[in-house]
Amino acid sequence: MRLRDPRTWEGRDLDSVDVVEALAFSPDDRFLYVEQSMWKRGDCTTHALLRMAVTSQNGIVAPAEVVAALGHDPLPGDLPGWVTAWIAADAERPWPPDM
């Protein structure tokens, strides 16, 4: 699912942004991975990878259900290599944090 929002964000704490893009992936039955970027005059000003889960009384809702409820086509399951590497690195992070 690729979303492109050409609205500007003037009057916000951010500088004016020309385009916000988001690309969603779902390689499993637990998480949605969303790559988001903001662009100004053709230059990428912000780039982030988000991992999200939607929950109900019964636990985590499968991403395919969430996407269907939003009226979108199924998400691609193939992840870019850098996203797969991020997931593997995050699996090494202690949870809960040791602080």
Structural features, described:
- The chain is of the alpha+beta class and 99 residues long.
- It has a domain at 2-10 and 17-76.
- It is 18% helix and 36% strand.
- The protein contains two helices and six strands.
- It has helices at residues 63-69, 81-91; strands at residues 2-5, 19-25, 32-40, 43-52, 54-56, 59-61.
- A four-stranded antiparallel sheet has the order 1-2-3-4, with no helix packed on it. A two-stranded antiparallel ribbon has the order 5-6.
- A hairpin with a 2-residue loop joins strand 3 (32-40) and strand 4 (43-52).
- It is globular.
- The model has no long low-confidence stretch (mean pLDDT 81).
Core attributes:
alpha+beta; 18% helix; 99 residues; two-stranded antiparallel sheet
What value does the average pLDDT take?
A: 81
Q: How many helical elements?
A: 2
What fraction of residues sit in β-strands?
35-45%
What can be said about the biggest beta sheet? 4 strands, antiparallel
Overall helicity: 10-25%
Along the chain, the helix and strand elements come as EEEEEEHH
Termini separation comes to: 37 Å
Rg measurement, Å? 16 Å
Number of strands: 6
What gross morphology would you assign? globular
Can you list the strand order of the major beta sheet? 1-2-3-4
